[in-house]
Amino acid sequence: MMKNKNWFKGKACAGTLTLGIEHFFIPENTGAQWEKKTHDIVRMAENGDAILETLK
Predict the structure, then answer these.
(1) Are 50 and 10 in contact (CB under 8 A)?
(2) Which of 24, 31, 13 shows the shortest CA–CA distance to 50?
(3) SS3 at position 34
């Protein structure tokens, strides 16, 4: 890895990249407000894990 660069940890298989943010908890009775979200806000944990903050 290059110094001073951030890298997400993930897995790649057959053209699919998995970062661990593929599932997001939607609180009960709030699903309709999330259906049309098209963008995500992701931050990187110190260990390189991707953490999904919210959807926009």
Answers:
(1) yes
(2) 24
(3) helix
